[in-house]
Structures are given as C-alpha cells and as structure tokens.
Specification:
Strand order of the largest sheet: 2-1-5-6-9-8-4-3
Largest sheet: 8 strands, mixed
Number of helices: 4
Distance between the termini: 43 Å
Shape: globular
Order of helices and strands: HEEEEHHEEHEEEE
Helix content: 10-25%
C-alpha cells in the first residue's frame, strides 16, 4: 500500500514515515515516526496511519528557516503559504493558517507549556480551548478560522529569535485550495510565553 515514489527509500530504511516539502525554501525531506538520527520526526503518539485530527512534526534537524518565512505578516504574504506533508500512503497539501511562539519548559510560563506538539483527536470542548489559545498566540490573522472537522498539522522548529528553549510553530490545515490568503492582519495583542 506504500505510494510508489516511497517504495525504494522505504525498502532501504523502514524508519521513514513520509516526507515534508516547503517549496518556498526548496526543501523536501523524509521524516520518521520517532526521532532517529538527523531526520525530522513526528512526535511520539502520532500514528499517521490513523485518521487523527492533528499531527505534529519537529523539523529542527532540517536546519531550514521557517521562522524568517512565516514570522511576520509581510513575510507570510510573500510566501505560498503551503506545505506538502505526505505519508507513505497518501499525499496532502496543507495551508499555513497560524504562526506562533511557545516555550518548551514549564518554568518559562508559570509552569505551563502550550500543547504545540499535540497528536490525536480532541473533544469539541478541548478543541474550543485550543482554538482560543491559538487565536491569542498567533502573530497575525490569516482570515482562516479553524474548524473541528479540519485535519491539522503542527510544524515546529527551535526559535532563532527567542532561543533554543522556545519553539516557532506553524499550524496548518489540510486543503485542496491553493489560493493565497488575502488581507493578513497583525495581531496587536500577541500572547508571548
């Protein structure tokens, strides 16, 4: 059942779970389901063969500059706003709908770490809380209001701006719409950790 383009690489190492591509940065890399060597990886608990509402991947080891591509509304407006996230079994296009910073260590934010690496399916109540917290943290508003029925992808990397103890995170929604967001507006009251 593996997509034909992955059969060769998968036969060489069964650690591979799929690939992520950021066309604006000319990046196309394979990822694993757990941290392995220098590959980017899905967080533990993410099973990409299941129909989960949200998956999270850490691409710190790719050494790509997602932060400069998406940290400001002006930079976002110049980008395609799209990320290709393909599993071994299906291809997917995801639109970046929010970008934010979060801490990795509890002491940096009153003993709280926002679940930027969430995997699985939320209850409607948990989703409502999650969406509200995303809204307060997002650096700019892309005009997209995430829905409970959306398939989400969280892509994070260590922050160059705030330091290695912080993450820069993109929240993306699976889509067939490849049009660019219009009227991106800065969030004047960003919640920073």
């Amino acid at each position: 059942d593996v997509i034909s383009e992955y059969k060769d690489v998968y036969s060489k190492t069964n650690q591979i779970s799929g690939s992520i591509a950021v066309s604006d940065l000319n990046v196309d890399k394979y990822f694993t389901s757990t941290q392995h060597l220098n590959y980017p990886y899905l967080y533990n608990g993410a099973d990409i063969t299941l129909n989960q509402q949200i998956l999270s991947i850490d691409v710190t080891n790719l050494n790509i500059d997602l932060e400069s591509l998406y940290a400001t509304s002006k930079a976002y407006a110049k980008s395609s706003g799209l990320i290709e996230f393909n599993t071994l079994f299906e291809k997917g296009t995801y639109k970046v709908v929010a970008a934010y910073y979060t801490n990795k260590l509890p002491y940096q934010n009153n003993e709280y770490v926002f679940p930027y690496n969430l995997c699985g399916t939320m209850t409607t109540s948990d989703f409502s809380t999650y969406r509200s917290k995303i809204s307060s943290r997002q650096l700019y508003d892309t005009g997209y209001d995430i829905l409970y029925t959306d398939k989400l992808l969280s892509v994070c990397t260590d922050s160059d701006t705030l330091g290695d103890d912080y993450k820069f995170v993109l929240l993306c929604v699976k889509t067939s719409d490849k049009s660019k967001a219009q009227n991106v507006v800065d969030n004047e009251n960003v919640y920073y950790p």
